């Protein structure tokens, strides 16, 4: 087929998702596989969210409310913000895309850590902008080096804390030093997809900056702690002036009615959130100790996954785990051919992963 694809689109690296359970079972004939590859909620969705989504189905012949009135207000009340500080997205992925569409022009520069969540580079390149990737230092954002890469073309800086795939975090004071070093019109995007799992007191919170005079945007999601990854719903926290710009490029009905209703119900289901945090924190602690006991170098994590090194090419370990029905995430594409990322599962899943890994590494 003859296509005229612009060079900046051809430069986009395709996003590689975690392997679905169905695909593994089809390919290798294994049964009862466990997926610990996409940092999803091991408890499933909140039952209240499921009920609300079901009820919403009888109303889907109508378009949903464009701005997500009810959910935006519920979020504002929970987060102690104004509704005008919140923009809903079809996953926080969509907010990344909206930011790029609204604020980037060809040739603009976007600073991010390397490795980073792949969507920052994809969205920047799709807008014709130039990603400026700054290597992590000791598996953490090197915020001073990132500040050092600012040029007159810089329009946006992405910081992801807790960081995917390492689980490391930035500290509030270091983030504020970066903010102080940035020109006043450069957007600082703090991706907080995993913030609900954070246990460290010095972790920053984007809410502290939305009423200042700087364009700081926080990205949050219902995909992780709230168990709604398949619903596709996330949100951005930002100064009202930034939100007004995003609404210009937002598709009018970008978040489905069942997603809005499910998210509002999940937000109110505090018992489910509490159970999730308890399960995830216990799982992080268990897996961290078990991996260390197995002699593997594993980073402490503020998130719902762990990043660890294996003593042979990680792709081979990943494949051998697949044969045992356990899906984790290989990280060669992130520049770590010796590392794997494992998401916290339920206790039985965590045990199965550790047992399979011991077999693979002992073999
Ligand atoms: C760092 C980070 N940001 C954003 C997202 C996207 O989340 P959502 O499902 O809300 O689009 C993910 C998902 O894995 C992530 O790891």
Tally of separate domains: 2
User: Helical stretch count?
Assistant: 13
CATH homologous superfamily heading of the largest domain: Type I PLP-dependent aspartate aminotransferase-like (Major domain)
What name does the CATH topology of the largest domain carry?
A: Aspartate Aminotransferase, domain 2
Shape: globular
CATH top level label of the largest domain: Alpha Beta
Q: What is the average per-residue confidence, as pLDDT, rounded to a whole number?
A: 96
The main pleated sheet reads as:
7 strands, mixed
Return the structural class. alpha/beta
Helical content (DSSP H or I, runs of 4+): 25-40%
Number of beta strands = 12
Trace the largest sheet across and list its strands: 2-8-7-6-5-3-4
| Uncertain residue ranges | none
| Strand portion | 15-25%
| Element-by-element helix/strand order | HHEHHEHEHEHEHEEEHHHEHEEEH
Which distinct ligands sit in these coordinates?
pyridoxal-5'-phosphate
Spatial gap, N to C terminus:
48 Å
Protein topology:
Blueprint: H1 7-10, H2 21-28, E1 34-35, H3 47-57, H4 69-79, E2 86-89, H5 92-103, E3 109-114, H6 118-126, E4 130-135, H7 143-148, E5 154-160, H8 172-181, E6 187-191, E7 216-221, E8 234-237, H9 240-249, H10 257-268, H11 270-293, E9 305-309, H12 314-323, E10 326-327, E11 329-331, E12 336-343, H13 347-362
Parallel strand pairs: 1-10, 3-4, 3-5, 5-6, 6-7
Antiparallel strand pairs: 2-8, 7-8, 9-12, 11-12
Pyridoxal-5'-phosphate binds next to helix 5.
């Amino acid at each position: 087929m003859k296509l005229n694809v612009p060079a900046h689109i051809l430069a986009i690296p395709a996003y590689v998702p975690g392997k679905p359970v169905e695909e593994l079972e089809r390919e290798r004939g294994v049964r009862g596989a466990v997926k610990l590859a996409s940092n999803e909620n091991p408890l499933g969705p909140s039952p209240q969210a499921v009920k609300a989504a079901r009820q919403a189905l009888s109303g889907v012949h109508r378009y949903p409310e464009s701005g997500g009135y009810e959910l935006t207000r519920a979020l504002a009340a929970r987060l102690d913000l104004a509704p005008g500080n919140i923009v809903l997205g079809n996953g926080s992925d969509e907010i990344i895309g909206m930011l790029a569409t609204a604020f980037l022009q060809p040739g603009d520069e976007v600073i991010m850590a390397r490795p980073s969540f792949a969507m920052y580079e994809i969205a920047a390149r799709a807008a014709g902008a130039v990603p400026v990737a700054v290597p992590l230092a000791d598996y953490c954002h090197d915020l001073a080096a990132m500040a050092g890469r600012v040029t007159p073309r810089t329009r946006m800086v992405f910081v992801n804390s807790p960081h995917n795939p390492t689980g490391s975090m930035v500290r509030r004071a270091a983030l504020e030093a970066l903010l102080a070093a940035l020109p006043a019109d450069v957007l600082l995007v703090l991706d907080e997809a995993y913030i609900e799992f954070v246990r460290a007191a010095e972790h920053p919170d984007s809410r502290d900056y939305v009423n200042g005079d700087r364009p700081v945007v926080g990205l949050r999601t219902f995909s992780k702690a709230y168990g709604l990854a398949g619903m596709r719903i996330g949100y951005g926290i930002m100064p009202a002036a930034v939100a007004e710009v995003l609404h210009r490029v937002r598709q009018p009905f970008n978040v489905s009615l069942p997603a809005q209703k499910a998210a509002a119900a999940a937000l109110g289901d505090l018992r489910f959130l509490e159970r999730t945090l308890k399960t995830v924190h216990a799982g992080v602690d268990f897996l961290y100790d078990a991996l260390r006991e197995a002699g593997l170098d594993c980073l402490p994590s503020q998130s719902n996954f762990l990043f660890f090194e294996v003593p042979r090419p990680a792709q081979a370990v990943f494949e051998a785990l697949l044969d045992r029905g356990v899906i984790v995430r290989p990280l060669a594409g992130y520049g770590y051919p010796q590392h794997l990322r494992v998401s916290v599962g339920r206790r039985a899943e965590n045990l199965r992963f550790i047992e399979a890994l011991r077999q693979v590494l002992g073999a």
